[in-house]
Structures are given as structure tokens and as C-alpha cells.
Amino acid sequence: RRALGSLGKSRAKFISAEETTGVTFNDFAGQEYIKRELQEIVRILKNDEEFQNKGIYCPKGVLLHGPPGTGKTLLAKAIAGEAGVPFFAANGTDFVEMFVGVAASRVKDLFASARSFAPSIIFIDEIDAIGSKRGGPDIGGGGAEREQGLLQILTEMDGFKVSTSQVLVIGATNRLDILDPALLRKGRFDKIIRVGLPSKDGRFAILKVHARNKFFRSEAEKEVLLQEIAEFTEDFTGAELQNILNEAGILTARKDLDYIGQDELLEALKRQKGTFETGQEDSTDIPEDLKLRLAYREASVAVLACYFPDPYRPFTETDIKSIRSQPNMCYAEISGRVFLKKLDYLNAIVRACAPRVIEEEMFGVDNMCWISAKATLEASRLAEFLILQTGMTAFGKAYYRNQSDLVPNLAAKLEALREEYMRFAVEKCASVLREYHSAVETITDILLEKGEIKAEEIWDIFQRSPQIPQPVVNP
Ligand code: ADP
């Protein structure tokens, strides 16, 4: 086996390579069933030949998905550590650059490095940055470049011979819904494992892992204190729980105490919750007129989300504490298998128009800002997807990867149809927002006053809102 040391320096900077990660499954707590599934993979990786003789092969790819901080990277490292194989890591965003060809060549580099040390593990964090649906919404640019990177990953994974030494590719994402389906096909990332937020028992187990190197007055007191923290930390990730213990350790040292006690833990919890809840120190820096626009944007998105609920992503809350190009509205993790119908696609286009429509209504056409431009971009891309890639519209029954695939007369047809869809979506959206104008105003007021609003309150306002009848808009 060649020394790994040379790799880190001489070859690509974007790859981080470790001979052994030193991480084991003992470092990951909670969600025991995940470990059980991965243990099987470790056994195959370790015992390459024995299993191959029996005709049992390691999956080529494992996809870990779930919210940030839930231990996906930790699990990937634990697989490498347990199997005793080198670990090559990169981030999906590293592949996407302005320069053509960079993505594909970086992917090649990564796989070549890992192959020369096989059996080994490749870990690609935020794989959605490179592996999102082709031809889908492309906020942030780099579409063609990204597509080449994605194709290269597919080529590399298809190219592995099962009979040669194994390279296991582990991907991590918190956006399973936007991944290109090609990545999830058999022989690619065909093992998909969800890493969710820990349960109460899971949180207790995680706290115990991170309390291993901390001092408590006694084992018994430690158990009681950690149980208490586990109780108070619903919705916390493993990373946040780890922070609480670290913070408590720092507070203890600052007070010159020998042991972590209840006061320090509760103080640390409060701090963690504080950063967790406000998160945006810059909220006061948002100018008043922009706050008003953000509030209207979120209110319009909320009303449309009530009128045309997304069957798979219920909204949870929104705020005006940060300035983002897309609405701040938060959604629950996708649940179950997605089964979108044409009407769901249409509704998504109408929903996407909301920030644009409300700006024009409230501020006038000459006073619209980037908020409208971003909404228009999003809605147009959704419309284009429906027209080109689903075969469900008057455009025709074929699939087109993107606009550049089209001969001129089809391109003209696309323009006309997209225009038609956008016109319909804007009109429909405007009709809904006028009908529920009083709900829009109420939600806007609450946002301006409190900075945030939860789904429950939004639904309540929506349902009580007196409706103002509007002329019917049909597609
Ligand atoms: P992700 O890759 O999902 O964003 P990470 O693996 O980077 O999350 O998690 C960050 C840190 O949080 C880990 O290094 C670990 O210390 C801690 N952590 C997260 N989840 C767990 C867990 N289930 N058990 C123990 N520690 C955890």
C-alpha cells in the first residue's frame, strides 16, 4: 500500500485523505439500526475475498440523508475506521467551479486516488451540489459544469468491476428530493439510509458518548443530569448536543470548578437554544423597507402554501430574520414516497409566483425588486421542467434534457407555452392573493411585530380570513 502522505500535498487540494480515520461505531450513538445495516457492509469490505467467493458483493454506493449535524460524516468515517481502509473525502460544492471541465476532472482525480488505495472509501458530502436533477431549477449557476461532474460520477461508478478491489462511495445530502434519479439507480447509490434526528433515548446515548472525556461528580449524577438534558432537547441534532457538553465544560473551567454540574449544563443548554432560536444576529441590520418587503413575501408564500398545500412538504414556520434570495419559509422533511401529479407541478408554479405577485400588488410594477426577479426565475424553471421533461403538456410527449436540445421551431413552441403557463400562474396566484388579502395583511403584521410565525397560526389565520370573491381563472 502506498503512503497516503504524498497524496494530500501533491494532488488535488480539494480531497482530504486519511490513512485511517480512527473513528468507530462506538462514536455514533442512537439509531442502532443504522449501525447494524452498516456493520454488514463493513464485514464485506474487510473480508473482500471470502465474501466474493460466496458471490456477495459490497454495494457500490451508500447514500446517507438527513438534516445537517446528525452524524452522516461521522458514520462514513466510522465505516472506514471499522473496516480499516483509507478514507477520501470531498465536498460536492468543490466540484462546481466557473471553469469548464473542472468538475469532471476533479471527479476523475478523486476516483483515481481512491482506486490506487483500494479497498477504500470515497465520501462526497453535500452531493446534491453536483448531483441535483439535471435540467431542474439551477439557482447558483454552473448548470452545464455540474452536469458534467454528475455524468462523470455515474461513469466512474458504472466502471467499477465488482470482481476487482472495492471502492465504496458514500454520499451525504439533506436534499434527497432534488437528487438526480440516475444516481439512485441499481449499481449506483442503491443503498439509501436515512439519518434522522435522535429520539430521547438516542439523545441520552449521544450525550453519554460526548461525556466520556468530561468530569462529573459521580457516574450516578452524570446519568441523572444527562437524562434531564435529553428531556429538554427535542429536535436537537447530535452536533448540537455535543456543543452543549463542550460549552458546559468551558463554563466549568471558567468558574474554576472540578466537575460539570447542573447549573453549567443548563446554562450551556440555554446558550445553545439561544443561538438555535435567534440564529441571525443581523436581523436588526435589515432596513425597515426591506423588512416590509420580506414580510409581504413570506405572507404571500404562506397563503399560497395554505391554498395549494404541497402534499409531501408541509410548511412549518417562517421568519423575516435573514435576507435570502428564496423565501425563508421552512418545510418538514419529505415523508414517504413522492407521487406528484400534474396538478401538483402546476400548483408549484403558481406558488412560486407569490413573491412576485404580491410585490406588484403592494409596491407597483415600477417598484418591484430582486425578490420578484428570483420568484420569476424559480417559477419559469418549474414551468420549463413541466413542459420539457414530463411529456404532460401540449408541447408533446417526448423528454428533452434542456432547451439546447431543441430545434428552432420547438424552441419557439417552448417559449410560447412557457409564456402561457407563466401568464396563467401569475393570474391564478394574483386571484388567490386578492381573495385572501386580509390573511396576507394579518400575517405580514405578525411578521413585522414578532419576526416569525408558525404553521399553526398561519393555518388559523388562513381559515378565518374573510374571502373576497374573484373571477375564475382556468388554465
Ligand atoms: P453531518 O455530516 O450529518 O452534518 P457530522 O457527522 O458532521 O454531521 O456531525 C458533527 C458532529 O456531531 C460529529 O462529529 C459528532 O461529534 C456529533 N454527532 C452528530 N451525531 C452524532 C451521533 N448520533 N452520535 C454521536 N455524535 C454525534
From TrEMBL:
- Predominant subcellular localization, coarse grouping: membrane
Task: Please state which protein family the record places this protein in.
Answer: Belongs to the AAA ATPase family.
A molecular-function term among this protein's GO annotations: ATP binding
Tell me where in this chain the AAA+ ATPase domain is found: 58-199
Q: Name one GO biological process term.
A: proteolysis
Q: Give Gene Ontology CC terms.
A: chloroplast thylakoid membrane
The signal peptide here is none
Q: What name does the UniProt record give this protein?
A: AAA+ ATPase domain-containing protein
